[in-house]
Amino acid sequence: MGLRRQKDSVTRGSGGMTVAPSPFNAVKRDLGLILILLPLAWLVIHRVVTGAEAQAGWLAAFSLLAALWVLGRAWWVRRREREGG
Questions:
Q1: Is residue 43 part of a domain?
Q2: pLDDT for 25-78, tens place per residue?
Q3: What is the C-alpha separation between 68 and 80, in angstroms, rounded?
Q4: E-strand stretches of the chain
Q5: How far apart are CA 64 and CA 73, in angstroms?
Q6: Domain limits at 55?
């Protein structure tokens, strides 16, 4: 009984399903980077800044800045796509 290749194999490497590139891929990349950096910022703030209120303020500022960045990038990409660029 030899090994044979099945046509309907799930692990088939050629052909297959692909996903069309999205104009929002840059926004997704930024969001992923932010999701990695914010916990690191929390660790640094926890070590450097004394006082719970000050730590919360710094984390809120970083979080707000990150949210505004992602929303701004998404708005910019959407606007560029609507204009046909």
A1: yes
A2: 999 999 999 999 999 999 999 999 999 999 999 999 999 999 999 999 999 999
A3: 18
A4: none
A5: 14
A6: 25-82
Top-confidence residue, 50 or 19 = 50
Extract the tokens encoding 4.
């044979």
Structure tokens at 13: 């490497």
What is the domain count for the chain? Answer: 1
pLDDT of residue 20: 79
Distance CA 54, CA 48 (A): 10
Kindly provide the b/e burial profile for residues 19-51, where b requires at least 16 CB atoms within 10 angstroms of the residue's own CB. eeeeeeeebeebbeebeeeeeebeeebeeeeee
Give the C-alpha separation, 75 to 73, whole Å.
5
Q: What gap in Å lies between CA 24 and CA 12, rounded to an integer? A: 29
**Exposure of 72 in the CB half-sphere (CA atoms within 13 A):** 6
What's phi and psi for 84, nearest 5 deg?
85, 15
